[in-house]
């Protein structure tokens, strides 16, 4: 399989990490060149990134025909189809279960990244504590939901489980003081097991 695609990414991006995991799992390392976008923030422009994704958001995949794709769920599904992979099941029940799990985890990532921006890039005197508290509550509810359903996760991870692992890894990386493991023994055990996968170990932020 010979392709010459480029993934524009940042090592700390959990959305880009999801794509990088899939690249490894699908054996596409020789088909996708990883291009570090360098400095990316919500209050600055990155010309190289903007030329691939006009919204300036990571990750972005430049195809070998010159077209580009953005948004990690779309990129992941494209790569999965390209490699005839197993991460997006064709069976309707399993497909929508894993897409629903991916949507929940992506939503938690959206909230977590927004919290990171609010507490890092916004001047301290302008931070909105009520907003911060409400977003944190949403993340906690998401974690509680994952704790309640992780015994139903696929034994061989699909895109939903991979995205959940990216959420938990991002919380460890950026919000270690949150201690998401407290009171969530089943989710903690599941995370320890999935982190044994080489693709997750090799993409760990830090």
Mean pLDDT: 94
Structural class: alpha+beta
Question: What is the N-to-C order of secondary-structure elements (H for helix, E for strand)?
Answer: EHEHEEHHHHHH
Beta-strand content estimate: 5-15%
Q: What Rg, in angstroms, do the CA atoms define?
A: 17 Å
CATH topology of the largest domain: Glutathione S-transferase Yfyf (Class Pi), Chain A, domain 2
Describe this structure as you would to a colleague.
This protein is α+β, with helices and mostly antiparallel strands and 206 residues long. The protein is 53% helix and 8% strand. It has helices spanning 14-25, 47-52, 72-82, 92-120, 129-149, 159-174, 185-194, 198-201, and strands at 5-9, 32-36, 60-62, 68-70. It has a 4-stranded mixed sheet, with helices on one face. α4 (92-120) runs parallel beside α6 (159-174). It is globular, with a radius of gyration of 17 Å. The two termini are 32 Å apart.
